[in-house]
Write a structure and sequence with these properties.
Elements: H1 2-18, E1 32-41, E2 46-60, E3 70-78, E4 84-90, E5 98-108, E6 114-120, E7 135-140, E8 142-145
Parallel strand pairs: 2-8
Antiparallel strand pairs: 1-2, 2-5, 3-4, 3-6, 6-7
Amino acid sequence: MLARRGMAAIGAAAALWLAGGQAGSAQQVPDLTVTRIDVAQPGPPLRVGSCNTVTVTVRNLANRNVPARVSMALAVEVLGSPARTYEQQLPSMAGNGTTTVTFSGVAVPDTAEVRLNAEVDPGSAVPEAIETNNARTQMQAVLGSCP
């Protein structure tokens, strides 16, 4: 029983710290994070050309709604070259909700390994409980050309 109370006190202290010292305010703002990046078409791996479709899954970890018009960016970078960035707007998202954003016509210029970097709310327009968990990066092989 005492151990349970001790753990509850630690959890409450962590929540208070995350909220900037104000009890309860951590639940007053959303917390957006990218949970997945997938090559949807023509299917993994990516292909040289602009036939690629990449989906990005975004989750709101808090129970506060997210208004519409939050920016989502996908940067496609062939190592050693400048990245090409694609942007979409997220639909509104309920607290603890998940949505998938689709980027069609993603161009890959070369048969090298590509870095995909997805970031939700890159301009920090939406106040969040944690601002440092908005991006996900993964390496993706490129094989062959678009049909």
